[in-house]
What does this fold into?
Amino acid sequence: MKLYTYFRSSAAYRVRIALNLKGLPYEAVPIHLKRSEENTPSYRAISPLGTVPALITDQGHTITQSLAILEYLEEIYPHPPLLPITPHERARVRAIALTIACDIHPLNNLRVLDYLQKNLGASEEEKLTWYRHWVTEGLTAVEALLAGHPDTGPFCHGTTPTLADCCLVPQVFNARRFGCPLDDMPTIRAIVEYCQNLPAFILAAPENQPDAE
It folds into this structure.
């Protein structure tokens, strides 16, 4: 498989974690978002929105959107599973993952932050205020979903990693990079610390990517 990725993209980071957890080899193809490589005609032919990640499967199919890729990997390569067994447990894992992927990340990805500054005239401090507000609000909700829940374990759900952990760890990486306070999120911090000691998460980390700067 071939994964179009960018070392700091939290969406691509999610997929790298999942591929590693499932032990699936892939070729990483860096798309440098800060150099506008996502806007080249050749990449737009792969990902019309110009976002990463994009996955070229073993069968030659192209899949965009990180959650669609995660679900595809789960269906085609079900072992080890990244979703629990029962429908209500699977729904809980998806709810956590989608809170991050749909409610937090879209408001704070690079193209939105660039638009705030270049098109709306936001200052650097105003951009950071925007970022920290939406990340803090979103992660506060995720903490509420996790804290004290009987299904929360060392991971977001139980004793094995799921799609929720694939989404949480990259989001917290970015939150820390932008100075978001996490003091009131002990459950999130404990889960992320646990995950970050596992080989699949270590190998997927931004600093360990071939395009890291």
